[in-house]
Write a structure and sequence with these properties.
With about 260 residues, the chain is of the alpha/beta class. It is built from nine helices and ten strands. The strands form two sheets. The chain has an eight-stranded parallel beta sheet with strand order 9-8-7-6-5-4-3-10. A two-stranded antiparallel sheet has the order 1-2. Strand 1 (about 15) and strand 2 (about 20) form a beta hairpin. Helix 4 (about 125-130) crosses helix 5 (about 145-160) and helix 8 (about 210-220) runs parallel beside helix 9 (about 250-255). It is globular, with a radius of gyration of 17 Å. It comes from Natronincola peptidivorans. Keywords: Transferase. One of its GO terms (biological process) is aromatic amino acid family biosynthetic process.
């Protein structure tokens, strides 16, 4: 039996406070470090990025790392730092929820809940998030087809939550020159198929900081509803993803030239 789709392609825009994402609204700019490492780090990032013109502050509290020996995030303490920084700079915040056990605390602190690439197939989590009245940033799974990504969004919508922002962050392919293969064709396809806003993450999409600027321009040229970029006060000293993170100065140039 053919699936009955809830997301039929009718344009849906998502409210984040006074910000509207999707439809005819201007692109949204999300930026911040991969991980919240300290109160000082995220405060510095929040005020610098606010000055540059960022709309939403990002930062990881619970980090799903490939290696169990890699930095796993500061957890609840990171959420507290992130929220304090966002409020001080006047920016809403987005952070990743990894499992249902942290649902209540992430709900308390985050303005947008991110479902990361590894959790796009976590249907139990998607069902639970579908019952919330909070924007969900749904990243594409690293090996997900278009149809699988659509169905992940359907899980959220079926359980009542259409406040969904999709994020193309690259998929694995046979080529390993870049971290992932950024699939920009997915942007207009997903907009047409679901009607949802689609943003692009060129940081994870390429894993190469020099490619962030051209891929940001390409993303907006093909109609993306925004960009999410990793920015760190001191990328060489970052505890995660420093190699693909931009400095404030580098991000400012990207922001001015997209």
């Amino acid at each position: 039996m053919k699936d009955k789709r809830i997301l039929t392609g009718e344009t849906i825009s998502v409210n984040i406070g006074k910000i509207r994402v999707g439809g005819d609204h201007p692109p949204i700019y999300i930026a911040g470090p991969c991980s919240v490492e300290s109160k000082e780090q995220i405060m510095e990032a929040a005020f610098a990025l606010k000055e540059i013109g960022v709309d939403v502050l990002r930062g990881g509290a619970f980090k799903p790392r490939t290696s169990p020996y890699a930095f796993q995030g500061l957890g609840i303490q990171a959420l507290e730092y992130l929220k304090e920084a966002g409020e001080a700079a006047g920016l809403p915040i987005v952070t990743e929820l990894m499992d249902e056990g942290h649902m209540d605390v992430v709900m308390e602190y985050a303005d947008i809940i991110q479902v990361g690439s590894r959790n796009m197939f976590n249907y139990s989590l998607l069902k639970t998030l579908g019952g919330l009245n909070k924007p969900i940033l749904l990243k594409r799974g690293m090996c997900a087809t278009i149809q699988e990504w659509i169905m992940a969004a359907e899980y959220l919508a079926l359980h009542g939550n259409k406040r969904i922002i999709l994020c193309e962050r690259g998929i694995r392919s046979f080529d390993n020159y870049t971290r992932n293969t950024l699939d920009l064709a997915a942007v207009p396809i997903m907009q047409k198929e679901t009607g949802l806003p689609v943003i692009v993450d060129p940081s994870h999409g390429t894993g190469i900081k020099e490619l962030v600027a051209p891929m940001s321009r390409a993303a907006l040229a093909c109609g993306a509803d925004g960009l999410m970029i990793e920015v760190h006060p001191d990328p060489p000293c970052a505890l995660s993803d420093g190699h693909q993170s931009l400095t404030f100065e580098e991000y400012s140039r990207v922001r001015k030239n997209v």
